[in-house]
Amino acid sequence: MSKKSERNIVTRVIAASSLGTMIEWYDFYIFGMLAKTISTEFFPEGNATAALLSTLAIFAAGFIVRPFGALVFGRLGDIFGRKSTFLLTLVLMGGSTFLIGLVPGYKTIGMAAPLIVLFLRLVQGLALGGEYGGAATYVAEHAPVHRRGYFTSWIQTTATLGLFLALGVIMLVKLNMSETAFNSEWGGWRYPFWFSILLVGVSVYIRMKMEESPLFSKLKSEGKTAKNPLKESFSHKANFKMVLLALFGAVMGQGVVWYTGQFYAQSFLETKALLNFEQSRTIMLWAILFATPFFIFFGWLSDKIGRKWIMLLGMLIAIITYRPIFSYFLEESDVSAWQQEAIVSDKVETPVKQVLPGSGDTLVTSVQTIKFTSGAGYTQQQVDTIRTASQEVINGKSVIKDKVLSLGRYWKFVALVFCLILYVTMVYGPIAAFLVELFPVRIRYTSMSLPYHIGNGVFGGLVPFIGVLLQTTFISDPLVGLWYPIAVAALCFVIGAVYLDNKIDENVND
Amino acid sequence: MNLIKKMLGIVWLLLGPAVIYFLTAGAVQNIDPSGTKDINNPVIWIIIIAIFVPIAIGLMIFGWYALKDEYKKLPHTSEDLRS
């Protein structure tokens, strides 16, 4: 085969695999990003069963079903082939996402709504668990020696680009309609779900045209495919010890760095720094846009100098700099520091009165919007209660929200979030090639998928929950939630540094 | 280096039960049916403990392998993995 046609094939392999994986991430993220609206529509407050289903939809999909999906589809991929398996995961993911967008709300069909949504969300988790291992294996098995890191790094961009696409699509829809139109039963929040079917259709069409991985085809033609990949992966000590090493020495640390850089940061900007919706989202979008090429860079670099130290260096810098960076976010968004600037506008809105049914007490909501010369500003809201019986006024606590940063501060925030995502590119860029090289062809899909989804789904996915848990226990430190990713990354760094090998396995055909 | 790998094996062996203990203690301390936060929710704790106990056992097995010199030399070919 000529070099040109070989290059064309590899380019098509990367494009088809990356596009599909990006769409799967997009599908998975929009549910989480629209969780508030979804919970109002499908899981109404005050209904204990709906609350239980909501919890299962959020937690079980990420923590239990993803690793389970890795086992189910990993097994299928090692027995029947990579191409057909990751085609199936794509159809399942796209189909369930589209269907979530079609489920009528709780008001219309009652408990059937949360039950159907929970089922579809679990299918999403299952499909995601099967997708990544297939795509990474498929690309790596097409990649030439010495370029495996570079080629698989395109797959590594997809999780971040999926997040970027989800943020962008939701923002685009939200900015083009009123809050009420967006949140109504058949409102704009459903559009990102419907949009998915178009993306999946294109991706399925492209993937259908692809050939099976040459290494798997060879194995199949020789009758050497695994009969029971699960048993071979996890009951055979020589292989199981590598699964454990992959999890504790690389993927666990990568998972927490990934989630802290891309999810915890966004949530922190919104809930702790109290930035307004648009600024917190656009800061993430800019940072992702600037940092994404570094996935490719570090994938390429890992072909030259090995995978291990790039990943471990990313973890080490994250461990050292997380607290200073997040502390800076808090200090710079503290409005008491802004108040030295001149105020250009101080608008007090007419207080809104609302009579509470039952007690007859009146809630008085006062809103004041302050803007400074630098362009910064914030909204201050206070809700006072007037007791009907005694006419006593109980003053509520003044709350600051919707902060807008000055342009200078805004770009400093973008630069720091960029650093957080740069760490993600260091730990995540080379990891697909690293995992592929650790396991033999016949059980590769199964063996690499499980540690990947435990590291990302469980260790990474728990970053927000453990953050809240620590915050509840140690109230005085607003950055206490960061100790979880720091501790996990530190543990992973030590294990990786001591036990991992920096050698690149040139032969992945065996 | 090999001695460090073996010695650290003991740390990983002990870390597994410590993780299980802290998770169970965290659950006992925070589960509160009248609470409204995620950390008061027993279902979440059940899911987390159910998924983390096997991982903690995995860490202990990793420690045991390290102590038994299983990571002295990593395999470089699939042939090594069959041995």
Keywords:
A: 510 residues; alpha+beta; Growth Hormone, Chain: A; 2 domains; 6-stranded antiparallel beta sheet; 21 helices; globular; B: 83 residues; mainly alpha; 3 helices
Q: Concise description?
A:
The complex is a heterodimer of chains A (510) and B (83). Chain A has 510 residues and is α+β, with helices and mostly antiparallel strands. Chain A has helices at 3-33, 35-42, 48-80, 82-100, 106-109, 112-140, 148-175, 179-183, 191-208, 214-221, 229-234, 237-271, 277-291, 293-305, 308-332, 335-338, 407-428, 431-438, 444-460, 463-473, 483-499, and strands at residues 343-348, 352-355, 362-372, 377-386, 393-394, 399-404.
Secondary structure: elements and pairs:
The complex is a heterodimer of chains A (510) and B (83).
Chain A: H1 3-33, H2 35-42, H3 48-80, H4 82-100, H5 106-109, H6 112-140, H7 148-175, H8 179-183, H9 191-208, H10 214-221, H11 229-234, H12 237-271, H13 277-291, H14 293-305, H15 308-332, H16 335-338, E1 343-348, E2 352-355, E3 362-372, E4 377-386, E5 393-394, E6 399-404, H17 407-428, H18 431-438, H19 444-460, H20 463-473, H21 483-499
Antiparallel strand pairs in A: 1-3, 2-3, 3-4, 4-5, 4-6
Helix pairs in contact in A: 1-4, 1-6, 1-7, 1-9, 3-4, 3-6, 3-19, 4-6, 4-9, 6-7, 6-19, 7-13, 7-14, 7-18, 12-13, 12-15, 12-17, 12-19, 12-21, 13-17, 14-17, 15-17, 15-21
Chain B: H1 2-30, H2 42-67, H3 78-82
